[in-house]
Amino acid sequence: MMNAPQLILASASPRRLALLQQIGLEPDHLLPADIDETPKKHETPRALALRLARSKAEAVRQTVDASDSLRDSVVLAADTVVAVGRRALPKAELTDQALMCLSLLSGRGHRVFTGVAVAEANGKVRSKLVETRVRFKRLSRKDMDDYVASGEWRGKAGGYAIQGLAGSFVVKLVGSYPAVVGLPLVETAYLLAAAGYPVHKGWATAAA
Fold it and tell me: Matching PANTHER family, A to Z (predicted)?
């Protein structure tokens, strides 16, 4: 029997790691991709999410290909973009950005695009884009100020983390909840299986 390829997660996100572990997958290595995430001129949020996921997978694939011990691995990468209309919101790092995002999202629907990509040892890159629609309640000034004070928004697409305190803002969600957190699980499992990775290998022991 052939050995299963190693699984490399091209992300430092604890949320993506936890989602993988939820479906019984434990990456052998975490190798965050260091790429420029600046949107291109006129690039749609949908195209941006898919391009960044693929670019992350390809960047880490290059690193892995240079290593004898990792060459046979499968690389998994993802990127999440929160959009209001055709506008991609930033991954908020500053208080002003977080407040801008929250006021834009308050009382209205937005879309979350998550791209996921798998780069195989043979050079093939498979990818999927998942779109989820989310609606926030109307946020009071206190909601926004208290959320900004929590610091939870830092580094998050659209300035919020749905799996955290901001879950109390969500009135409606249509689509994939894990994709909004950062990794669409159905599509991730599908892409990994298509790349020959044994997605269910840990299931027999997972429930024990």
Answer: BIFUNCTIONAL DTTP/UTP PYROPHOSPHATASE/METHYLTRANSFERASE PROTEIN-RELATED, BIFUNCTIONAL DTTP_UTP PYROPHOSPHATASE_METHYLTRANSFERASE PROTEIN-RELATED
The closest alpha carbon to 147, from 85, 114, 100, 83, belongs to 100
Look up the CATH architecture of domain 7-205.
Alpha-Beta Complex (3.90)
Structure tokens at 47: 């195209």
Catalytic residues: 79
Q: Which of 135, 136, 113 is nearest to 50 (CA)?
A: 113
pLDDT tens digits along 21-60: 999 999 999 999 999 999 999 999 999 999 999 999 999 9
- Give yes or no for a contact between 160 and 147, defined as CB atoms under 8 angstroms apart: yes
Determine if the pTM surpasses 0.85: yes
Using alpha carbons, select from 14, 190, 23 the residue that is nearest to residue 118: 190
Which DSSP category does 183 fall into?
A: -
Instruction: Write a three-state SS string for 75-139.
Output: EEEEEEEEEECCEECCECCCHHHHHHHHHHHCCCEEEEEEEEEEECCCCCEEEEEEEEEEEECCC
